Amino acid sequence: MGRLSRRALLLGSGAIVGWLSAKAFAPTLADLTGTRSLQHEPAAGTLNDASFLSETPVSAHVIVTEDPGEVLVDILRSEMREAASEGRSVNIGAARHSMGGQAIPRGGRALTLQSSFIEVDSAARTYRVQAGVRWHQVIAALDPLGLSPKVMQSNNDFGVAATFCVNAHGWPAPLGPMGSTVRSFEMLLPTGDHVTCSRDENPDLFTRTMGGYGLTGLITEMVVDAAPNANLVPTFTEMPAVDFAAGLATALAKPDLNMVYGRLNVDRARFFEDALLIDYVPDDDQEEISEASTSGPLSKISRHIFRGQLGRERIKRARWWVETALGPKVGGGVVTRNSLINEPVVTLDDRDPARTDILHEYFVAPDRFGEFLTLCQTVIPASYQELLNVTLRYVASDTESWLSYAPQPRIAAVMLFSQEMTARAEADMARMTRALIDGIIAIGGTYYLPYRPHATVGQLRRGYPRAVEFAVEKRAQDPAGRLRNNLWDSYLRHL
């Protein structure tokens, strides 16, 4: 949902929450009879990720808090030497929010970097950060200086370097993935060499690391582009879903467009038939820009409505009304660019131990968007998965990353499913995912790699034409496999 006026949302949504019956927030669906329940809590000696389904044995998990410089480099170099002597792998991460072990080294040592090191160059509109810095820290440092991250995800929990390693994207428009905003980075190679990479220095290593899932080296610090912060005003446009690509093109033609995203109706009676487009342009008044904020107490209201959709079509219809009817009336006020992206994932977090949230993301050309809708209308309702949300985004072309998901401009569809923590549900999710990926590839699109490892090796090969080349270079640079994760173990090493 677009950020709404706080007072108005409290008044409007208070009425909605009162109207929804208490049963809307009752316990969720019971586990399926005869299925094995999967657990949230990992066993000792293992590490999990946001899916709670990637429990992986590791030799150790270590928190590293040193700031950039020789001390940090020496620590990581020592870790690499120990990994070589012990015949194991090493990996660094931040939030470890991937959902298929893409940030976990099986049998290796997982290092979680934490830091508050940020240097801002206001004149150059850049900032330098240590690899473990999170986006909420970047926003806090940039906001008082009138700056904002040029591209980041729509949530602030994740690490800056981790975002680069999955080459994530967000709402800023008309821009491409976050990697397009990175000027340079420093990285420790498996050989122990500490190198600088940019588009001019070690350019092949720069573009392999962009979206390379940490398989090329251990990033220690980065220099990244910032953008001006601004007061923004939204426009809400409801339309048939088949018209969304044309509506998005109209929004992108606005010379002052700053942010844009869309939603799809997930009510099964009108599944993927209705769309909402929200675009943001600068307000006429830029004299006073307020401090970046988050939704705060309003997250509880949003969460109740969001989670109340589970298994309840009436609540899904109510949520669509909130977004398309109430939202434009009470949410058309000014909001800062930083406030739009300064929201943690936990805002809508699932607290049901019997379920887990699973993300999918697919990338399709705008002129194939109608075929994408038809595919989803065929495949998703045939499963018993609960789809709670679809966010649509624009991604400009990325011709740099070796594992690019947007070689030409794409519409990205980010789907959030609520999945039962059972083996049967996992099998159903795998079947549905493969069917979606086959259909997406058939219309010239692809899928995103940080999520559940349900694709086949053949699907990865077809969806990412340079994956074989990437694997060849990885073996040449790291023949002993010091840098590994499940993306390598289950997929790339087989190419």
Q: How does the SSE layout of this entry go?
A:
Blueprint: H1 6-19, E1 46-47, E2 56-57, E3 60-64, H2 70-86, E4 90-93, E5 109-113, E6 118-121, E7 126-130, H3 135-142, E8 147-149, H4 160-166, E9 182-188, E10 194-198, H5 203-209, E11 218-228, E12 231-240, H6 244-252, E13 259-264, E14 274-282, H7 298-307, H8 313-330, E15 335-336, H9 337-341, E16 355-364, H10 369-379, E17 386-395, E18 410-420, H11 423-442, E19 446-447, H12 457-463, H13 467-477, H14 486-490
Helix pairs in contact: 1-7, 1-8, 10-11
Can you put this structure into words, describing what you see?
With 495 residues, the protein is of the alpha+beta class. The protein has helices at residues 6-19, 70-86, 135-142, 160-166, 203-209, 244-252, 298-307, 313-330, 337-341, 369-379, 423-442, 457-463, 467-477, 486-490, and strands spanning 46-47, 56-57, 60-64, 90-93, 109-113, 118-121, 126-130, 147-149, 182-188, 194-198, 218-228, 231-240, 259-264, 274-282, 335-336, 355-364, 386-395, 410-420, 446-447. The chain has two domains: 6-27 and 230-460, Alpha-Beta Plaits; 46-228 and 475-494, Uridine Diphospho-n-acetylenolpyruvylglucosamine Reductase, domain 3. It is 30% helix and 23% strand. The strands form four sheets. The chain has an eight-stranded antiparallel sheet, with helices on both faces. Strands 6, 7, 8, 9, 10 and 11 form a six-stranded antiparallel sheet that branches. It has a three-stranded parallel sheet with strand order 3-5-4, covered by helices on one side. The radius of gyration is 22 Å and the shape is globular.
